[in-house]
Design a protein that fits this description.
By secondary structure, this protein is α/β, with parallel strands linked by helices. The chain is about 40% helix and about 20% strand. The mean pLDDT is about 90.
């Protein structure tokens, strides 16, 4: 019989050791940023109904979460505040005793090695649920920039290591960079939500942050999921305005966009593995339809392979445990 000529790719797949030798993409615990929802009150550790394993935590329980992260090797968290009182201008976002400011001071005092990233937006602080000042049913861009800069400065004063603006107003990176520099925070970097789509995957987060719009939607400032070139323009603008990191949100349905942004810019790229992506896996696992560990690690690996340097993920703790076990 004539010998067939073909490539034998399976030679490199014959054992665990061989596969590990040639593995191109690795997950590290240091890659993960764990989201933490801090609420006002005491003795609160309340599971978010649509996000099994994710909790609202009051200040007196914050350090339990932080210490668990430290034990697992997670080196950074992103803080979301859920205030009791809301108003039309989201004043609790930039209040000196705002919930994020209090949590930041506490964490930096008790665990200064933990990198604290402050989400900088107004939606969970406004009574209308939009990410800016609203007038006659319209979200105003330029007046909102002043409040975003004010919020960023207050978070930096509280000790935030990184400011992460998520509002998608035009010019928000410029306004925040100017505000931080004017206040003397030249060394505080901006992790910009540079590419943020108007996605249907945010539902559980809005449940967690109590941030659903009370009217309309966010399509006038978040991006159309059908658009690719717009994402590149948005990323270009944020780089030019002084961003230090670029976030692509959501991650899983936009891996193609993440790859293009990574190829185009030398800045660190952050994938936001959003709430809907998290909750779908949790629901499927609860029904016994998938191997939860394998699916989660495959999903996170796909984000690294697409170009993410860091991943904001609600799976951070469980993924860190699995990596540690391996």
């Amino acid at each position: 019989m004539k010998e067939l000529e073909f490539d034998r790719h399976r030679r490199l797949r014959g054992s665990d050791a061989l596969r590990a030798m040639v593995r191109e993409t690795w997950l590290r615990t240091e890659d993960f940023i764990y989201p933490l929802f801090v609420v006002e009150g005491e003795n609160i550790h309340r599971e978010v109904p649509s996000m099994p394993g994710v909790f609202h935590v009051s200040l007196d329980g914050v350090m339990n979460e932080i210490n668990e992260c430290i034990e697992l090797g997670i080196k950074s968290i992103i803080l979301f505040g859920v205030p009791k009182d809301k108003d039309s201008h989201g004043s609790q976002a930039y209040a000196e005793e705002g919930i994020v400011q209090q949590a930041t001071r506490l964490i930096k005092k008790e665990a200064p090695e933990m990198v604290v990233i402050a989400d900088t937006c107004l939606c969970q602080y406004t009574d209308h649920g939009h990410c800016g000042i609203v007038e006659n049913g319209k979200v105003l861009n330029d007046p909102t920039l002043d409040l975003l800069a004010k919020t960023a400065v207050s978070q930096a004063k509280a000790g935030a290591d990184i400011i992460a603006p998520s509002n998608m107003m035009d010019g928000f990176v410029t306004a925040i960079r100017y505000g931080l520099d004017e206040a003397g925070f030249h060394d505080v970097p901006i992790m910009s939500y540079a590419v943020k789509y108007s996605s249907s995957f945010y539902g559980p987060f809005r449940d967690a942050a109590h941030s659903s719009p009370q009217f309309g939607d966010r399509k006038t400032y978040q991006m159309d999921p059908a658009n690719r070139l717009e994402a590149l323009r948005e990323a270009d603008s944020d780089v030019n305005e002084g961003a230090d990191f670029l976030i692509v949100k959501p991650a899983l349905s936009y891996l193609d966009i993440m790859r293009e942004v990574k190829d185009r810019h030398a800045l660190p790229i952050v994938a936001y593995n959003v709430s809907g992506e998290y909750s779908m896996i949790k629901a499927a696992a609860a029904n016994g339809w998938i191997n939860e560990q394998e699916v989660i690690l495959e999903k996170l690996t796909s984000m690294k392979r697409a170009g993410a340097d860091l991943i904001i993920t609600y799976h951070a703790k469980e993924a860190a445990r699995w990596i540690k076990e391996q």
